[in-house]
Amino acid sequence: MPNWHTTVAAIVTVAALATLGTACKSTTTSGSTPSGAPTASKSEATAAATKTVPNLVGKGLQAAQDQAQAVGFYVLTSHDGLGRDRMQVFDRDWKVCTQKPSSGNNVSVDTKLDFGAVKVDETCPAKNQSAPSAAGGSMPNFKGKSVKAARGALDASTSVKVEDVSGQDRIIILESGWQVCSQTPAPGAQISGQPVTFKAVKFEESCP
Predict the structure, then answer these.
(1) Residue 155 lies in a domain
(2) Are residues 176 and 164 in contact, defined by beta-carbon separation less than 8 angstroms?
(3) What pLDDT shows up at residue 14?
């Protein structure tokens, strides 16, 4: 009659060997490439990651974005081509005047496409206009720029006062719709925390 302890020991030994064999098999085959499986070359991978930028100038902003995505570009941005720092809230209300990179360039699909846009009923400027910058600590010339863009160029801690210079004493709410006629301090003056005053009218009006 078989010894009970001997039988249990034999069963445990067999189970342990089976587990070891499975582990060894997994370690050996993990990460291996099946014989004959196709592998992409470095040049093929590079080609797959680049696309030719389409010509989207003149398109509606929404249509331009859709067409860019259809080609493979998903990193998209846009800005006010008139330099007024308006937000493109409803893309269908805007049209593309400029694009960067320009059409025909073969670039990575991770490249950001930047569209300079104006509203559909506006005329594209001869040159893309960027928002002003106060880099260097001197007061830029903000004349003709939107009050919003001028405020955005200054340090966030700057105290800014805006006055309607038309004589109508209107409250200025939508600052991107108002243009700077004059400013204090004057252009070129050093700015180091002093208050700034803009006198402005609406863009469809003339400065006095």
Answers:
(1) yes
(2) no
(3) 41
